[in-house]
Write a structure and sequence with these properties.
Oligomer: single chain
CATH architecture of the largest domain: Roll
CATH topology of the largest domain: ph1033 like fold
Shape: elongated
Number of domains: 2
Order of helices and strands: EHEHEEEHEHHHEHEHEEH
Bound molecules: zinc ion
Strand content: 15-25%
Number of strands: 10
CATH class of the largest domain: Alpha Beta
Length: about 300
């Protein structure tokens, strides 16, 4: 299961009514936008968060994955340049209380990908149609959606009658949120486990910066973070780097990075006299595989804080 965020604006009502999302195959300038490529990846069972005017207003479960289809006639003519498009059939569940992105942006921002984020830094929605939503962001959105939409009617009631319990269990929105949450958690758990297993031997089971070998103190870091990676990149062992917990934290925060030669770069935020405390040696090179290079470069360009 993957999740996506769709930015619908004025087409929301029509698309909800038809139980679909639809996007043109090419944009005004005749190019294939990122949204169109992403539309083709939507599969049955995936989840979609529906964003309208500042808020997530619904979540849906995809009934039929992407197919080529002309723009349905009921959808107003916003895209005059083409009728050729991609269509996904999906079952909408509207939230009683929409999730206002700006209100919860502090909690959401850390999980947004650096590229192709649905939201800008000022919490407004971006202008594309479809955006990826990684598992961590999915879990964060679900947490807020559940908080706003579940058990808000009779919180202070100590005992629920049997009827009410049954009613709650049958609440389709609640069931969908719970199911989505457990699938997203499972995706993360399975992915991380597999990733770690394939990364460990590539680094001889030890941190290349300090030599720590104790299993419990080692983490398999992603150079291109989980939130920014495609499914393949998330599991690609060469996107991984085995580091001890301290060095992993520095790497994740972008306080250290490596270039295409495997040379260590240290952020100016760490004063030189503290290098020893953090077990960092200026200019040290770690052994890398050629396939690590693009990921190291991505990290240095996008995550490293110079
Ligand atoms: Zn280390």
């Amino acid at each position: 299961m993957n999740s996506f965020i769709v930015m619908q604006g004025t087409t929301y009502q029509e698309e909800k009514h038809l139980g679909i999302i639809w996007s043109p195959q090419i944009d005004k300038s005749g190019l294939v936008p990122h949204s169109s490529k992403l539309m083709q990846e939507v599969k049955s069972g995936d989840r979609i968060f529906h964003y309208v005017k500042g808020s997530i207003v619904a979540i849906s479960i995809v009934k039929k994955g992407c197919q080529e289809d002309n723009k349905p006639q009921k959808i107003r003519n916003h895209t005059r340049w083409t009728d050729n498009g991609y269509l996904v059939e999906t079952e909408y569940r509207e939230l009683e209380v929409p999730l206002n992105i700006r209100e919860y942006f502090d909690g959401i921002a850390p999980y947004l990908p650096i590229k192709y984020s649905a939201f800008q830094e000022d919490a407004t929605g971006n202008s594309g149609y479809l955006y990826p939503c990684n598992e961590e962001l999915t879990l964060k959105l679900l947490e807020y959606m559940s908080m706003l939409n579940i058990f808000n009617s009779d919180e202070d009631q100590l005992e629920l009658s049997v009827d009410e319990v049954i009613a709650k269990e049958r609440n389709p929105l609640q069931a969908l949120l719970a199911e989505t949450e457990s699938e997203a958690k499972m995706n993360i758990r399975c992915g991380q486990k597999k990733f770690r297993k394939s990364v460990m031997p590539l680094w001889n089971h030890k941190c290349p910066l300090c030599g720590i070998e104790m299993d419990a103190l080692l983490k398999s870091s992603h150079s291109k973070p989980w939130k920014d990676s495609t499914d393949d990149e998330r599991l690609n062992p060469y996107n991984g780097l085995l580091l001890c917990f301290n060095h992993d934290a520095l790497y994740e925060k972008g306080l250290i990075s490596f270039d295409g030669q495997g040379r260590l770069h240290i952020s100016n935020q760490i004063p030189e006299e503290e290098y020893e405390t953090y077990q960092l040696r200026k200019g040290i090179k770690i052994p890398l595989h050629p396939d690590n290079k693009p990921y190291f470069k991505w990290h240095k360009r996008n995550v490293f804080v110079d």
